[in-house]
Specification:
By secondary structure, the protein is mainly beta. The protein contains 1 helix and 11 strands; from the N terminus they run βββββββββββα. The protein has one helix at residues 132-136; strands at residues 12-20, 25-27, 31-32, 36-45, 55-61, 66-72, 81-84, 88-90, 94-95, 97-103, 110-120. Strands 1, 4, 7, 8 and 11 form a 5-stranded antiparallel sheet that branches. A 4-stranded antiparallel sheet has the order 2-10-5-6, with no helix packed on it. It has a two-stranded antiparallel sheet with strand order 3-9. The longest helix has 5 residues, at 132-136.
Length: 137
């Protein structure tokens, strides 16, 4: 019996609210289960990361692949959503993180939502339930 499309895995969004600091470093984002493809990932600035005389970038990825390449963050307004479409495969459970590079002083910590669109690619173990009418015909 063929599986209906509704029984196969569907892409979903994972997300986590994080605080971006004022120094270079990695901020852990949402968890991604093993056996998933990350189709897209990005960041939404909930509050603006204001700065004065600071150069700061943020990239989104798993530490190996940057799903969203490094982009300037000090000029982003609250409500700005940035996304990247570099796909990656997560073979063991991991997180999609915000990687900051900051030079200079004056950056103000910001609240952001790190998000990723993921789809499991492991074998689907869900199947339609067999009923008597299927075997009687």
């Amino acid at each position: 019996m063929a599986k209906s499309q509704s029984m196969n895995y569907q892409p979903t969004i994972v997300e986590k609210i994080v605080t971006l600091g004022v120094a270079s470093g990695t901020v852990e984002g949402p968890a991604v289960p093993a056996g998933c493809v990350v189709l897209s990932a990005g960041i939404e600035f909930v509050t603006a990361p204001g700065s004065a005389g600071t150069s700061s970038t943020v990239a989104i990825g798993d530490g190996t692949v940057a799903n969203l390449a490094a982009t300037d963050m000090q000029a982003q307004a609250a409500g700005t959503i940035l996304g990247g479409v570099v796909p990656s495969f997560i073979s063991t459970a991991d997180t999609i993180d915000a990687i900051q590079v900051v030079s200079g002083a004056g950056l103000v910590a910001a609240t952001a939502r790190v998000w990723a669109v993921v789809c499991p690619v492991s074998e689907s173990t869900r199947a339609a339930a067999e009923v008597d009418r299927d075997t009687l015909a």
